[in-house]
Amino acid sequence: MINFLNLEYFLVAAEELNFTKAAKRLYISQQSLSNHISNMEKEFDVVLFNRTNPLTLTYAGQALKNKARQILELKDETYRELADIKDFSIGQLVIGLSHTRGRMILPEILPVYKERFPNIDLKLVEGNSSELANDLLHGDVDLVIDMLPFKVENIETVPLCQEEILLAVPDATLEHAFPGRLSEIKDQLSRHTDLKLLSECPFLLINKGNRVRTIADEMFEEAELTPHIILETENIETVFALAAKGMGITFYPKMFISGHKDLLNQLSKTTPISFYSLDHPKAHGILAIGYHKGHYMSQATKEFIRIAKETV
Question: How many CA atoms lie within 13 A of 67 on its CB side?
Fold first, then answer.
């Protein structure tokens, strides 16, 4: 019979290939870890590690490593399913999304959800689109809220609402690049957001891996434009705040603008900033919830999706 604790310890050791590092990661002594590994080797009557420096996996060890994660994930899914069957009195829901999108969406959903299901333990995992897709694939989150399409296989999606990426252009940037032509350039942008027109302007962009950055890069490539990027950061609120101060142009989701009404009203008197629709199909998308079709969907997850559709 498989001892799950031994299996969990083996998997960490197989990933680290160093008993000292693995023991520190597990918060146990190296001798204790060695005992767990020895117990597994006795149970299966095989050698799992070549005790070389550095450690290497034997053929048997490699075979067990390939199956260990699947076995542990199946164990976790079984426990969650049994907890649901019990009476839905306990459970856990892990939600993945960007921290900015969470600020806009979760206050609409979570108060309603928590009132109806107070005993569900809620956890948030924040990251960019690439990181969240990887978390979803490996079962580290139950669902992800992001823009379609999700770049990972075997994902079922539930549309929530329309979303649009806008071009945020401060007047100060245009005045510097086009002295005396502000009204003319703004009129041109209102009729057609030609990025080539802005080739001499500075841009503030979020890091690669974020969905908004991916859309921006595709637009630059199609326009055959190498943008003058003066700053890249992981936080989209940082680039917006700097754009609002006139430092450069950025791309910003329309949904987020409602959270800055006071700031925009204040800026309209000092450093105006305008938002323009982008003539690109991927700038007009759908915000959706995604979940892995191959993983067990708890009742907690189903109820969250239902409430999100009602609320958002």
Answer: 8
